[in-house]
Design a protein that fits this description.
Layout lengths: L2 H14 L1 H38 L5 E6 H8 L17 H8 L4 E6 L2 E8 L2 E10 L13 E2 L9 E5 H7 L10 E11 L10 E16 L15 E4 H7 L5 H8 L10 E5 L5 H10 L2 E5 H44 L1 H9 L4 H44 L12 H18 L1 H8 L3 H6 L2
Parallel strand pairs: 4-9, 6-8
Antiparallel strand pairs: 1-10, 1-11, 2-10, 3-4, 3-7, 5-8, 6-9, 7-8
Helix pairs in contact: 1-11, 2-9, 2-11, 2-12, 9-12, 9-13, 11-12, 11-13
């Protein structure tokens, strides 16, 4: 039998019992809607996390450490010998070498130090971090109040909102006001004795103008920025030459005459260049870390979540298949004479099966289309409700649900396949009807 004839007969038969078939199709639509709504939440959250990480600039960043520092962080390991001091130092020479690697756009040190902020004649201990001007494009400062640094050496500061609340009940009123940065400056000893290098510590003060308040943490805590509450231009932080926690290890290792960095951040052109550049840095004798190492587990986590949500969402669709079975079985009882005439006119068992499969697939297809729309609508309602709550908390709006094309096609195809499976028993039962007994049926 031709496909066109099958489709015409299927729609005609479905129109004869409009209410029952509509309710069955609605059951399929509800099942598909639950599937689409749950999976769209998983996909939306995954896209939200990926977008936030991409805008933070972490996907194209590699954090570089000396082997000695990495070994100290991991602690001593049994069977491993050798002095950590023998590893290559992470100094200005290493920084220049890293900047010459292919596809590297920027290399800058992580400068962070403990200090005391004086505002309105009150002391506030906190941590200060140097931020490169390129961080303005990373997305962390997009929603800030005020503006970004006017230059690399500007005597300006951006405060984290939590620290700003410690300074004033009205954080926004701080913008445009001055604070005093009290820090310990490192000064090298010009003793001329290379065998006993060292440095002295001199207290200094620096007046800074508050130009902005930021809610998010630059670089999300990676590399040291995220643990700070006051941010200043990176070049200004280098000029201050403030002492940090790495200075003690330099004295212990006898390298106090040469300033080393606790870590360096290497920026590459695109995230696809991270792996090659990271391998090259490791070949130079340094330890590395990149978000690429973490996203593998992150993708696996979201993959498992999507599967679990898909399984729970499919339960309602599986229940809807019972409605399809019931509808088609009732159709067999009501259309016994029609099936008998159909087979008496030359139709074989295969034609009868195809007719019932066509009816099941039509219900699955129509229910799938309606379910996708209903699932998308549920996602929009959930997103709207979430954004209303976030707006009350002064948090930017987000999109927590996403319905990509592959989910639309997959949901419709899955609905049709489940409907065809549900039609197996009714189709086989209808094909086994004896045409003589069917023509006698009243």
């Amino acid at each position: 039998m031709k496909i066109g004839d099958l489709t015409e007969l299927a729609f005609r038969n479905l129109r004869e019992a409009v209410l029952r078939n509509s309710l069955t199709t609605l059951g399929v639509a509800v099942g598909v809607a639950s599937l689409v709504a749950l999976v769209s939440l998983g996909v939306g959250l995954q896209q939200l996390v990926s977008k936030r990480l991409s805008s933070s600039g972490l996907f194209n960043a590699i954090f570089v450490y000396s082997q000695a520092d990495m070994q100290e962080m991991r602690g001593p390991r049994r069977g491993v010998s050798g002095s950590p001091a023998a590893s290559k130092p992470l100094d200005e020479s290493a920084r220049r070498d890293l900047s010459r690697l292919p596809n590297v756009t920027e290399v800058y040190p992580q400068i962070r130090f403990m200090t005391e902020i004086r505002y309105d004649n009150n002391p506030y201990p906190t941590s200060v971090a140097g931020v490169p001007l390129s961080a303005q494009n990373d997305g962390a400062f997009d929603g800030m109040q005020g503006h970004f640094f006017s230059g690399p050496n500007a005597d300006e500061a951006i405060l984290h909102s939590e620290f700003a609340k410690d300074l004033s009940d009205n954080p926004l009123s701080l913008i445009g006001k001055d604070l005093v940065l009290r820090y310990a400056e490192r000064q090298s000893l010009n003793s001329g004795d290379s065998a006993n290098p060292g440095f002295s510590v001199v207290p200094h003060e620096k007046q800074l103008r508050i130009i902005g308040i930021v809610d998010t943490e630059p670089e999300g805590g990676f590399g040291g920025f995220g643990r700070s509450r006051v941010f200043i231009p990176l070049q200004l932080a280098q000029q201050l030459s403030a002492t940090d926690v790495s200075d003690l290890s330099e004295l212990v290792n006898g390298s106090g005459s040469v300033r080393t960095y606790s870590s360096l951040t290497v920026r590459v052109k695109t995230p696809t260049d991270v792996q090659a550049v990271e391998n090259a840095i490791k070949g130079m004798g340094f330890a590395t870390f990149s978000l690429l190492d973490t996203t593998k587990n992150l993708r696996l986590f979201f993959f498992v979540i999507d599967i679990l949500l898909g399984i729970f969402g499919s339960l309602a669709l599986i229940v809807a298949t019972l409605g399809i079975v019931n509808t088609l079985v009732m159709a067999i009882l009501e259309r016994r004479r029609e099936i008998g005439v159909f087979k008496a006119l030359g139709a074989d068992d295969r034609d009868v099966k195809q007719l019932f499969f066509a009816e099941a697939s039509v219900m699955g297809f129509v229910g799938g289309i309606g379910g996708v729309f209903l699932g998308w609508l549920i996602g929009r309602v959930l997103t709207f409700g979430a954004n209303v709550y976030l707006a009350r908390q002064n948090v930017p709006a987000v999109n927590i649900a996403a319905v990509p094309l592959w989910l639309v096609l997959g949901a419709v195809i899955f609905a049709v396949l489940v409907s065809l499976v549900a039609g197996l028993y009714p189709a086989s039962r209808a094909a086994r009807l004896n045409p003589v007994e069917a023509l006698r049926y009243e």
